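#onboarding

Welcome to the new folks! Below is a worked example of what a typical request in this channel looks like: someone posts a single protein sequence, and someone else replies with the predicted structure as tokens. Don't worry about understanding the tokens yet, we'll cover that in week two.

Example request:
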Amino acid sequence: MKTLVGVILGYLVMFVTLFVLLSALYAALGPDGVFLPKSYTPSAGWIIFMQVGQMVAALAAGYVAYKLGGLKSGIWLASLVLIFGVASVLVTLGQPAAEAREGQVAVFDAMAKARTPAWASLLQVAIGVVSVLFGVKLAPTDAPK
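Example response:
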């Protein structure tokens, strides 16, 4: 049971952390700072921030998973990040290009219409898996085994 709690809460920590970080940055930069002109393709700066945000969120998630459920939780969490991440990339590969972007775009519309390059999405998955495992390693060893 501790393993499951660690995995679920670790994933929740990762989701909430990444959502808050990216939403705050989107609010600060606006669509013109996040996307290339007249498109829903993220700018290089946004892609870099996504990778850094994923690293921070996954480190925290791995730490939480290990503290709550031990090593098994961290390994299961890293596995889920890999499975869900690859599945997400595969789903987006078949999507048609989004229409041209004009004017202000709400954050949820931007998330739905964004077309991140496959290489950046795969990199984000890899960073997520590795960072979860590093988060496990950072946790003090007094956690449950």
